[in-house]
Structures are given as C-alpha cells and as structure tokens.
Amino acid sequence: MSEDHQEPEPVVGILGAGRAGTAFARTMLSAGIAVDICSTRPPKALQHHLKIYAPGARPVWPAEIAERTLSQGPGIVVLAVPQEELDEVDPQWVSGTVLIDATNTWHHEPLPGWLQAAVDEQLPSSMAIAGRFGTAQVVKALNHISHHEVEQAAAPHAAHEQRRALAVAADDDDARGQVMQLVSQMGFDPVSLGPLPAGRIMEPDGPLFNRPLSRQDLLRWVR
C-alpha cells in the first residue's frame, strides 16, 4: 500500500497529564500508539510539560480529547484525573467513547457529592462514574498498577504468559474487548473479571491493587 493510502494511526485520548496520565502516555507511545492528552492547562502551556514527561504526546483542549480517537479509532479515552477533580470533567467531552476509569478512591481525598454518596453506600466507585458519564461505555482498567511501574512492567514483545496480568471489568462486552486489546498492545496480559461491579477488587486495599500478578493469579477472581 502506498503512503498516500495508509490508514491513519490509531489514537487514544488521555484526560489528565499528571504522573499517571503521562506514564500511560509514555507506555502507549513506546508501543506505537498515538496519544492525545489534556489537562487544566491550555495545550500551548502543556507543551513543555509533555516534552519532559511524555514526549510525542499531542496536547489538546479537553473538549477535543475524543475527536481523533473517535475518527481514527479505537474510540478510547483514559480517565486519569484525581477523583476530587471529576466535577471539572464535562461528560460531553467523552460522549460516545469507551472510557477507561483508571481512577482510585483515597481515604484522604475529598470527593464530589455524587461520588461520595456511592462510596458511602459501599458501591464500587466505577459504578458512580458510569452513571456520571452515561454517554460513554465505562471500563475499569489500568488503576491497580502503580504509575511508577507501568513503563518498566510493560513487555509488548514478550509472550502473553510472560507478561504482567492486568484486570479489566465492564458491563459492555465490546467495550471490554476494545480495552483488553489496548492493554495487550501496551505490553500486558489482560484478564476480564466480568461486569463493572467486579472491579471493586481492583481498588486500593483490594487483593489486586499494586501487586504484580500473573494470569493464573487473576483467574481465581473471575466472576
């Protein structure tokens, strides 16, 4: 196929350019996945930050975060902002996407009222996020590995049985499959735990959180 007729490269959007968001970006870029990323700073102000922490990522306005991933595939946006800042994220920014909830609830962190109510009812936080971002398909993933370990743990050229396993939970089968494909491209061995509520065990203090696990370790938790 000539260069003029090459398919556009797939792009993933990342909401949040902090330590987690930039770690995901670096890992994806190393695996050949293009990245659009945004933060509370304008794209021009974000450029220098990305040159240091995620070289190759393209800074965009938050309202633009889903545009290229929806037009070029796979239609995935990673939610990587602190939960205390979720009220600042307009659900319309991610409308129509597969939204990876990579956030975590920390005991010291003040939460938006709608999220605190779910936590008080002992619901998985991802269920409240799915309600808040109802025009996206929410998938719980990428939250139970430390941002310090994402890059070094990724092994895109290794056989799956030699990779670190990462859990994925979602109600929508297609959305879950798309995220599992992305996790695999990043260099991990994705394992489906089942529907979105199954993601509770991926949260802090859960049995999967921040632990290097194999596929066999995760399979015992599958619903």
Automatic annotation (TrEMBL):
SUPFAM superfamilies the record matches: NAD(P)-binding Rossmann-fold domains (SSF51735)
Domain Pyrroline-5-carboxylate reductase catalytic N-terminal, residue spans: 12-104
Cytoplasm listed as a keyword: no
Matching Pfam families: F420_oxidored
Keywords tagged on the record: Oxidoreductase
Entry annotated with the keyword RNA-binding: no
UniProt xrefs under PANTHER family: DUDULIN-RELATED, F420-DEPENDENT NADP REDUCTASE
Name under which the protein is recorded: Pyrroline-5-carboxylate reductase catalytic N-terminal domain-containing protein
UniProt organism field: Nesterenkonia rhizosphaerae
